[in-house]
Structures are given as C-alpha cells and as structure tokens.
Write a structure and sequence with these properties.
The protein is of the alpha/beta class and 237 residues long. The chain is built from nine helices and ten strands. It folds into two domains: 19-98, Winged helix-like DNA-binding domain superfamily/Winged helix DNA-binding domain (Arc Repressor Mutant, subunit A); 105-215, Rossmann fold, CATH 3.40.50.720.
C-alpha cells in the first residue's frame, strides 16, 4: 500500500504497483511495446471509444490479454474492476510515461532524402517533439527552410544547439560522418540521439542512443515471407 493509503488495482481487481515507483526495473521489451499502446489508444479515441478491456486490446494488438495486464501493471495498472480501462485516462498515462508533452526539442543533422522526409512528417507533432533546427554541410541549403524549420551550417552546430536548448539530435547524415558528429554532440547538453546512420553509436551515460536500422526491419519481413513460403511448399508436398 502506498504512503497515502491509496491502493491501485488492475482491471481484474488485483492490487498493482505503487505508481510513484512505476519506472523501476521495467524491461526493455515492455518499454518497446508502450508506443504500440499509444498508437492503438489514439485510434480508439478517434473511434469515440471511452473504455476498453484487455481482451479487446488483445484482439487489436495481437498481444495476449495477460501480457497487456502485466505490461500496464508495471506502471500502476490503470484499470477498474468490472470496467476495464478508461481509454482517455490510459492514453494520458501512457503519454506521461513516454514523455509526450514534456516539450522535448529536436534538431535534425543531415538534410538528405531521409532527413527531408522526416522533418516534414507529422510524427513529431503527434508525439510532442518540436524540431527546431536542421543542420547540413551544403551551402545551397543553409539559410533555407524545410518543413518550416531553418537549415543551419554544421559550423554552428554546438552554438545553435545550445541556443535552442535541444534535447534530441536526429542523425540522418552519411554513415562515415556519424562518429565525428557524435563526438561533437558528446560535448553538448543534448540528452539523446536518434541514429539513422547505420553506424552503431555508443555514448556515455549522459546521452541515450536509439540506433535505428531500417534494413533490419526489411530483412525481418523477408525472413517471415521466406518462412511462410517454405511452410506452404512443405504442406503442398
């Protein structure tokens, strides 16, 4: 029981963890599922749904109802016995856990095809991240705007990051330049790097890195297709 004598329950009425300790010892697998809850809850809100059970979420997300309850219990449960989950309330809590609305500021480094596509995406606004600056080495781009964001010279990287109080650096520059830029970023006050370069980056504990390999996702899809084709061929013999 928490210090204010308030006990929280999951949707089956089982006492859950104290919400003030919600982020302690949460596995990476659970954390990686949280954005899926965010997306599906947004969809339920658009549909006008006011409540949902773990069984309904299970059918939507292709995750067992038991897994959903376990995941949410890591953060306090959020359910009501005999009712399920209040969609708007659960969405608000998931947003809080994921830092949506925390006012994070991002800068994109590398204004090639991928960078240009990302900065024009509504993804950032939907997730509460404000892209405030773009950096590139091309003289023809510097001073121009892309997606209403100004492109700055890489020569002004550190000074501009500081002036905008940037939290997140998004790397979409060539792989061979990733290490050099990461070293420069290590001397700034940024808190995280979203890395699309294909180069595995590791920083000290002060900067969190999310290395994104788009090709890995494609290869996973290819594997699944190949496996299904093999199973179908075996079944037809």
């Amino acid at each position: 029981m928490s210090e204010n004598n308030e006990l929280y329950f999951d949707e089956e009425g089982i006492p859950s963890a104290d919400r003030r300790n919600i982020k302690a010892n949460v596995s990476s697998a659970v954390i990686k599922r949280l954005p899926r809850y965010f997306r599906y809850l947004r969809e339920l809100i658009r549909m006008g749904k006011t409540r949902v059970s773990s069984a309904e979420l299970s059918r939507m997300m292709n995750v067992t109802a038991s897994q959903i309850r376990q995941d949410l219990n890591c953060f306090g449960g959020f359910g009501q016995q005999g009712y399920g989950y209040n969609v708007n309330y659960l969405y608000t809590k998931i947003c809080e856990i994921l830092g949506v609305g925390s006012g994070f500021r991002a800068a994109l480094i590398g204004c090639g095809n991928l960078g240009s596509a990302l900065v024009k995406s509504p993804m950032f606004e939907k997730r509460g991240v404000d892209v405030v600056a773009i950096f590139d080495v091309s003289a023809g781009l510097i001073g121009k705007t892309m997606g209403n964001v100004t492109v700055y010279s890489m020569e002004k990287l550190e000074k501009t990051l500081a002036s905008f109080d940037v939290d997140i650096a998004i790397l979409t520059l060539p792989k061979e330049n990733a290490t050099e830029v990461a070293e420069r970023l290590s001397k700034t006050n940024i808190k995280g790097i979203w890395n699309f370069t294909g180069k595995e980056l590791q920083m000290d504990d002060a900067i969190i890195v999310e290395n994104v390999h788009i090709g890995d996702s494609l290869m996973t899809l290819c594997y699944e297709i190949e496996s299904k084709m093999s199973d179908n061929n075996s079944a037809s013999k």
